[in-house]
Write the structure tokens for this entry.
Amino acid sequence: METTLLPTLMGGALMALLAGLDRMPVGQFMLCRPLVCAPLTGMVVGQLQAGLTVGILAELIWLGRLPVGATVPPDDTQASVGAVVLCALFAGGENVSAAQTLYCLLLALPLAKTGLLLEHWARRRNDRLPDLLLARLEREDDAAVERIHLRGLIHFTLACLGTYTIVVGAGWVVGRALEPLALPVIGQIHFPVGLSLPLVGASVLLATLNVSRSLTLFCASFLAVYLAGWVL
């Protein structure tokens, strides 16, 4: 199946919008988790294997810095979606290799920082809306409630799509420029580098867990899963 540029980008943009809005302002049905949004994006753009790999590698990083309350971490959701779209673009309709998948994820993760900046922008814009709403209500403009709520949602929509555009656009330009040098190196070391991402996420998660004996519980859970896999 030949991959065309526009359907891939539009399909990725749709997933970026749905997952990005689920991340904070709408729903919060956990569609924003890399383990969910990356495979779904892979299905949309025809790279399911890459989506599953990206979701597994990025999930623990996302869990280590959750977007809860006033906390605004880097947007690992858009990084995951963007990484899968980059895989589809680099593969050109072929099956993407493990090295290419890791390469695209390593390109996308640093660009997740732009999501933090754009979400701060959206929140600053929305901070002005309550005063505007009060002024409209004083003039008995009841319909302004709906319009101003919609305006707040539009700000988050622009932040989501802006982050996706930067991740995919900058990732494509930088990735194409560095591909001849970086991809052969990643091809040789992709297994230990890929293994390090979940380990880093697990380390951050353990450091932030406010649970008594969290390290003991984590090790016991890991050994239980390992034993179950060995028995089965």
